[in-house]
Specification:
Elements (H helix, E strand, L loop, with lengths): L2 E5 L3 H6 L9 E5 L20 E3 L1 E7 L15 E9 L1 E2 H9 L5 H4 L5 E3 L3 E2 L10 E6 L2 E7 L7 H8 L10 E3 L7 E2 L5 E6 L2 E7 L2
Parallel strand pairs: 1-11
Antiparallel strand pairs: 1-2, 3-6, 3-12, 4-5, 4-11, 5-7, 5-8, 9-10, 9-13, 13-14
Length: 203
């Protein structure tokens, strides 16, 4: 299983981190060991003192594809979820300043939360989905998939130019603004609309 992540896909998040707006999707990968096991907490690693939450819409690939035309991308996934790309922001900033890859800050063990999967037919339009993240009962991130620079179908088409997509691969589609630090004993709840997709404690 590959976990393919898209960075800088919401303008408001680009602005909050003072990044430049990309001309094409920014891709990075997470390892299979980054996935948090079901019902397990997120453990803050000892190499970072500034772990951020980044809530994102996810899709799961259902068949093998390469060089997929965006018109046919919808045929390659049936399931949608919500997750968190946990990021060691202090480590990422250091790596970026040195022009180095981000993997240590993005793909460390336990850095990917994947919520429950639901059939995309449950939604009228996945390109117009409201989603949110609550931190200790307060909403800290709110997004809508219509605000993506590149929508899900465009992402699948673009990614497939470089990587063969295989059954079970997961795509993290990018985060809206409102990312922030998590601390021990925090509780995070992710929702699409009013439906809860995950709940996790920080340890």
């Amino acid at each position: 299983m590959k976990i393919i992540c898209i960075g800088r896909n919401y303008v408001d998040h680009i602005n909050e981190l003072k990044n430049n707006k990309p001309k094409e999707p920014v891709i990075f990968l997470k390892t299979d060991t980054s996935v948090i096991l079901k019902n397990q907490p997120f453990f803050i690693p000892n190499f970072s003192s500034d772990i951020h939450h980044e809530v994102e819409l996810l899709v799961k690939i259902k068949k093998v594809g390469k060089h997929i035309d965006s018109r046919f991308s919808h045929k390659y996934y049936d399931e949608v979820s919500l997750g968190i790309d946990f990021t060691a922001r202090d480590l990422q900033s250091e790596l970026k300043s040195r022009g180095l890859p981000w993997e240590k800050a993005k793909a460390f063990d336990g850095s990917a939360l994947i919520g429950k999967w639901v059939d995309k037919s449950s939604f009228q339009n996945i390109h117009d989905l409201n989603f949110s993240l609550e931190l200790n009962g307060d909403t800290v991130q709110k997004g809508n998939s219509s605000l993506m620079l590149w929508n899900i179908d465009e992402i699948i088409s673009y990614v497939s130019q470089f990587f063969t997509l295989k059954i079970g691969d997961v795509i993290f589609s990018g985060t809206p603004s409102g990312v922030g630090r998590v601390n021990i004993n925090d509780s995070l709840v992710g929702k699409i609309g009013d439906d809860e997709f995950f709940k996790i404690k920080i340890k």
